[in-house]
Structure prediction request, 470 residues.
Amino acid sequence: MLQATLFGGVALLLSSCELLEFSPNDVRVSDTQQELTRKNLARLAAQPKPTGGDTLRFVFTTDSQRYYDELDPLVSSINQQRGVAFVLLGGDISDFGLSREMTWVQEKLDGLQAPYLTVVGNHDLVGNGRAAYQKLFGPLNYAFTYGDTRFILADTNGREYAFNGQVPNVPWLQQQLADTVGIRRQITVCHVPPFNEDFDPALTGPFARTLVQAPRLVFNLSGHIDKFGESEPYDDGVTYISGYSVQQRHYLLLTLWGQKHYKLDVIAY
Amino acid sequence: MRTYSLIISFLLFCLSGHAQVTEPSRQPWYVPEHAVLQTAGGIGMIAGGVGYALGAHRRFDADVLIGYVPGTYTGDRAFGIFTLKGTYSPFTLPVDTHWQIKPLAIGALINYTPSQMLNRSRDDKYSYKNYYWWGSTVRLGAFLGGRVGYGFNTRTGRKRVASAYYELGTNDLYFVSLLTNTKGLALGQILTLGLGVKVDF
Prediction:
């Protein structure tokens, strides 16, 4: 009895600690809600590839911003897919750039059987969102390799930086794409696609040319526009895929094999 | 967390301690009637201010507070938060000659965080109107709470009350999130708790 009361008391204290919010713009979260990128990459590194041969399968969904009702159905649908190595979320995790919003999404995505990785969206940079994203998820630009495939995730939300000519960081992107040791395929992931008005117009050309020069690039994935598309907007041999937003209740199941072969399945939930 | 325990201890100390004795005098209307010290509730790790008790039965409190959130919790530089708060407590239950309980408090607040760290949402970055329809520096809040007071007389016979209160509330953005997600979010997820003390001058 005493023990139960004690545990209850401690639980109450811990939960009220979270209730004691200093500011909605603060970045004060529990240890389990921090550095999700690093933690999910560690999980991924320890996980044997669920598909045989050179086949790699993953899910792309995007723009979860304030669509919490849709997240449970999304998670249970993805969990029913076979061979999913990981899930990519294409930015705008939050709507208002608040850390508590990001934790709401984290709590839902914790239900995924596969690890998940994110790229930062423009809504995640509003208010104190940049600091919140960096603390709760991790770097705004990063790359990882899985199944001989190099995934390069870049902040392309140029308008949030008043089009300062530095976002996306094209030299960094070039450097990442140049490093092809042991890499069979490359995939770039960003929130705002280069053909959207919220992409820094001065960098559209350099960005597109950087992708053309990447010989092992399969495609570029993006979010932001809430409109699915698969096209070669610059007729330069580079495929750009725009994903479905969480609100649209569809996601992309992507299966890669060989060097540039891929199959795109649109899944409704 | 250590700083935080210190603040809690300080709040408890304020509650247990008696206010200093001053000469009774008829104060002009604009001189505040009480001091406030609060932690959390979205207005600072620590927020201090002054306020007035208004109305015939002094059921309405109007407070102004300045809050502080240290850089450790903002990711970079400290926040200063300026808050205006109104609280209405319709009932007062006397317990004995000293103690009284105000079981219900209904309140609203507005605050402003002028930090340069906050990337402004209202500077027409996006050509389409109202893309970011909210302001990132101004928050509206509402809360329910309660208060326990201890009344005492100064040596000169003036009556004073020292009280402790709690406020369970939320802000406009959390509320909109819940309103548009009745299945995906629960009320408990959008709540914030504030704890504070008020002492009459």
